[in-house]
Specification:
about 425 residues, mainly alpha, about 75% helix, about 0% strand
């Protein structure tokens, strides 16, 4: 069995998962405020330091078309992504203008909003992983750690300074993942929660061609967690009558997720042919092989974006092994929710790797790993609290904050340098 039954005191058994006392609220506001301030400074610093490059110029050109023509042109094989970001950019420039700074400022604002989104995703994940008695303290700390990692991460900061839709994709990915976990444990207003998830998932699919990969991973997550919930209920039923009642509730538990997922799939059907056409054009655009060295380089670049390019293969290998070890710890100790978080992170990675192996052009590049990287940040926030011994928790937190300090230095150095065209 790939999942374990949750302990009796795991937070998902209750409707609320963290304390709403004044002290807890002040802690949440304080942590989020400080981390968001740091993230805003990094993202807005030197925003107009260089002129628009090719892909940013494409964003500017698309948003200048009338809305219907914009949607049509974004579906052309030579355009890389669906229209939601470009429509939002069009509305943004109608208010603030279309200078280099204002075009990039939309991504910066969205990138700042990614920080609290990570915080609340980590809080929701804690409700599935940690005992209820620890949620009021461990939840804010795990959320603050995940938010800090994203706030200081050089790749996320770089994306926030580009007039492209990657930060919007990241925010929608985190929002949909959070709403999915909340909907799965909803005891009331379940229809509202599943409706919100389906809207966020559909918007994600229409923002980036990486979006459907994330939604597919969320479907896997939902399947694992729903199986765990249903088997827990069946295991608690001792008599035939109870089994019949539990079976009825289990069908009701499955109905809303199936409806929501079907709605997302149907909403994406009109764009599916465009997505395949764009993927075909991308695969044939030029020749770029994927080798084990480029794999290590891409993974290392996603971890330490902006680091020296002549980093040894051994150093890259150690960093990649540490990320894989992180996945193992969460898989092993995070119950069925831990398995689900690992799949959320690995599934898009696997698809990008598979596409790169079968096509003439590899897209397994550091800059395209920003969604799996969000999963790594979440798992780093959770890992210290998966250890029972306080000594291990302290060591894990120390290692994480050393990592955050390293990435912060890389971010500052990267922003200081003249930005290279990358996306």
């Amino acid at each position: 069995m790939i999942y374990r039954q949750p302990a009796d005191d795991v937070g998902i058994m209750d409707s609320e998962y963290f304390s709403t006392t004044p002290g807890s609220r002040r802690l949440t506001i304080g942590i989020l405020g400080a981390v968001m301030l740091l993230g805003a400074i990094l993202r807005l610093w030197e925003l107009g330091g260089s002129s628009l490059w090719m892909d940013e110029a494409l964003s500017w050109r698309l948003q200048s078309f009338p809305a219907l023509q914009l949607v049509s042109r974004s579906g052309e094989p030579t355009t890389c992504h669906p229209p939601v970001y470009f429509l939002l950019l069009k509305a943004w420039t109608a208010v603030w203008g279309d200078t280099d700074v204002t075009l990039r400022a939309l991504s910066s604002v969205i990138g700042i909003l990614l920080i609290p989104a990570m915080y609340f995703w980590a809080m929701e994940a804690c409700a599935w992983v940690l005992p209820q008695r620890e949620l009021s303290t461990a939840g804010p700390l795990a959320g603050g750690t995940a938010a800090m990692i994203v706030a200081c991460n050089p790749l996320q900061v770089y994306l926030s300074q580009q007039a492209r839709g990657y930060t919007l994709t990241a925010v929608l990915a985190v929002m949909s993942a959070t709403l999915l976990l909340r909907a799965l444990r909803a005891t009331d207003r379940a229809v509202a929660w599943w409706s919100c998830w389906s809207i966020a998932a559909a918007l994600l699919c229409y923002t980036s061609n990486l979006g459907p990969l994330t939604v597919a991973a969320e479907v896997l997550v939902a399947g694992i967690l729903l199986c765990g919930q249903i088997l827990t209920k069946l295991g608690a039923a001792d008599e035939l009558a109870a089994n019949v009642e539990v079976g009825t509730r289990s069908r009701q538990t499955l109905l809303l997720p199936v409806i929501a997922m079907t709605a997302v799939a149907i909403s994406y059907l009109p764009w599916l042919a465009n997505a395949f056409g764009q993927a075909k054009t991308l695969s044939e655009s030029f020749h770029q092989d994927l080798t084990w060295k480029t794999f290590l380089s891409a993974m290392y670049g996603a971890i330490f974006f902006g680091a020296k390019r002549d980093t040894s293969v051994w150093t890259q290998g150690v960093a990649v092994a540490a990320v894989l070890g992180l996945h193992f710890v969460v898989w092993r100790n995070g119950r069925q929710a831990g398995v689900s978080l690992v799949l959320w992170s690995l599934f898009p990675l696997w698809v990008l790797l598979s596409f790169s192996l079968i096509s003439t052009r590899s897209i397994f590049l550091a800059r395209y790993l920003f969604i799996p990287q969000l999963g790594w940040a979440l798992m780093l926030g959770l890992v210290p609290f998966l250890f029972r011994r306080i000594q291990f928790r302290i060591l894990a937190l120390g290692a994480i904050f050393a990592f955050v300090g390293t990435t912060l230095m890389l971010t500052i150095e990267h922003v200081k340098r003249e930005r290279e065209p990358g996306m």
